[in-house]
Amino acid sequence: MRIALLGLGHVGLAFAQLARREAGAEALASILVRRPDAERPPWALPLLTLDPEGVFESEPHVVVDALPGTEPSRRITGWALERGIPVVSANKSFVADLLARSPGIPDRLWFEASVCGGLPLIETIRRGLAGDRVLRVRGILNGTTNFILGAMEQGMDYPGALREAQELGYAETDPSADVSGLDAARKLSILVALAFAVHMDPAAVERHGIDGLDPARLPGAGRIKLVAEARLHPGGRVLASVRPQRLEPADFLVRAEGAENAVEIETACRGVLRFSGPGAGGLPTAASLWADVAQAVGDRVARVRRLAPAAREDAASRVFGGDVPRRG
Ligand code: HSE
To answer: CATH code at 8?
Structure first.
């Protein structure tokens, strides 16, 4: 299998390590980076390119996007899909922007890792809840702010807590997206597109962050969490917000500690479903990327495996250049 990886930051590096472990060192065919002078592991050096189009020279079977920001992800994804190459994305800026604008989701675009790191929410909503009717989505969708709020409860100051979240690899390259609630709004708009088939610009989400938060001015009792919520109203209107709230101890969302996320999805047939777990960080997000890679490229594996043994070798070399991926 040949993977073109975009980005070698915290998530990109964790994904590269996971891919090497699961599919062998040859699985990574090229890696797009933006900073040529950053320190990299020696095995990565021969694979690096600064040219967005250069990633296609390695004839990848799949492109994995671990970049921040909408560009160059949008361009590269477009080129890949035109060539019939699946794209697996952790890039919530790009995915939220795409889903806010376009009525359909490209078949070959996979984006489990773009929302809540390690939690398999996208597949759950898209396939698991197909045919049910989602009434409400409510959750803690940003690990960095949850980590900061928890650390401040323990007595750390805001700048120190933010610095630690950055060092641990939870925060965005530009952490203002985390603390302003924009990252949570992007993830919420992705969930809204899938859950309610409503295309919502993240800018349309009512948003209050934790930057400049004055706990004394938040009403009620209980722990402060940054809560994202979208609700289906009569007539099909969806109202969405991200804002700090005090939560009662019995509230399910209170259990998200550190960089964890917690999400409740209420549906007409099932009542309330609850999910919690690692929402940010290298390995959990890389694991979600890897799950999508296995599915995106696994179709090719399945096609090859359905063939009679004599035809397999020939088909495998046509599809994979002789290098058939192992399934995990
Ligand atoms: N900065 C994001 C967060 C990373 O803290 O949740 C995961 O999307």
So the answer is: 3.40.50.720
